[in-house]
Design a protein that fits this description.
binds 1,5-di-O-phosphono-alpha-D-ribofuranose, binds adenosine-5'-triphosphate, five-stranded parallel β-sheet, four-stranded mixed β-sheet, about 180 residues
């Protein structure tokens, strides 16, 4: 039976990568695969377990059909390797860090996907982005401005996960959410 695609989204700084890292062991224990993205960000600045590539390499990979999904945002290119389709065919749940702007296209390609929106209190976002220090102040303001453009809401069914409190709480909530959805 085909596995479920779980599409985790949320504002930059809401804690998507932190949650995926913190939940890695319990997710692996239940056979859920976490996607390692391909990103045109320098290896030093990745901040997540991803493959850093140049723009030229990304474009070549995309042209050759290496990605199941790909998008551009924040001045970067993001690719989801094609092998997620093998994992899904094998029956694994597959969890990825997705883009809100790409959600409609992701749903078109994977109609049964489970969309999960990570949220935090608005004033926490700026604090978290600043404390993380991966982007400079101008880039942080651009990310906060981008977040504001999604205030109108996203289309289609969505599960909300709050990450305003401790990360360990969010891990438990994520596992419960997957249990409830049958994964
Ligand atoms: N529950 C939490 N409590 C306190 N700090 C947190 C929590 N979750 C994440 N953080 C911190 O917030 C910052 C942003 O988290 P993270 O990089 O995981 O966000 P993200 O959603 O993946 O952002 P981006 O989309 O920009 O990559 C990090 O410095 C992280 O340590
Ligand atoms: O703003 P939206 O469209 O939700 O997301 C755009 C992109 O930004 C984030 O990546 P990162 O912050 O560069 O790691 C998301 O993971 C996504 O890939």
């Amino acid at each position: 039976m085909a596995g479920k695609l779980i599409y985790l989204m949320g504002p930059s700084g809401s804690g998507k990568d932190s949650l995926l890292q913190a939940a890695a062991a319990p997710l692996a224990a239940r056979g859920c695969r976490i996607v390692r993205r391909v990103i045109t960000r320098s290896a030093e600045a990745l901040g997540e377990d991803a493959e850093a590539v140049s723009r030229e390499v990304f474009d070549a990979l995309e042209r050759s059909g290496a990605f199941a999904m790909s998008w551009r945002a924040n001045g970067l290119c993001y690719g989801i390797p094609r092998h997620i389709d093998d994992w899904l065919a094998e029956g694994h749940a597959v969890l990825l860090n997705g883009s809100r702007a790409y959600l409609a296209e992701a749903r078109r390609r994977y109609p049964g996907l489970l969309a999960v929106l990570l949220q935090v209190a608005p004033d926490a976002l700026r604090k978290r982005l600043t404390a993380r220090g991966r982007e400079n102040p101008t880039e942080i303001e651009a990310r906060l401005a981008r977040n504001a453009t999604f205030a109108e809401g996203l289309q289609g069914p969505l599960r909300i996960l709050d990450n305003s409190a401790a990360l360990t709480d969010s891990v438990q909530h994520l596992l419960k959410l997957l249990d409830d959805a049958g994964h």
